Amino acid sequence: MMRPDPDLTEVFLCQAPVDFRKGIQGLSVLVEAQLRLDPFSTHLFVFVNRRRDAVKILYWERNGFCLWHKKLEQERFAWPDHLEGPVVTLSSQQLNWLLDGYDIGQLQPHKALKYKTLL
To answer: What percent of the chain has pLDDT over 90?
Structure first.
């Protein structure tokens, strides 16, 4: 099974639906021209179709682009379109929740604590 690595620092989610006839070339141009992000970075770029029953994830891997596609048979993705801006930044855990069908707007984990000493 292929899933995003929990150690990823950022996942960029395009809020607006995308024409899924676009492949690697079209999506990478969209990342650079419309979202104003670097498609050659180590980040994931996530897109949804108009019906919200399919997701594409684009990423650069060392020497070429990779495109991951998931199509649901009956359900719809709970896409977070209530947030501001054309791009939403997610954690890899939030992306996995989204792929599993959870509404990530409703899930709030405990805040992370960072200590430097026990003394």
So the answer is: 47
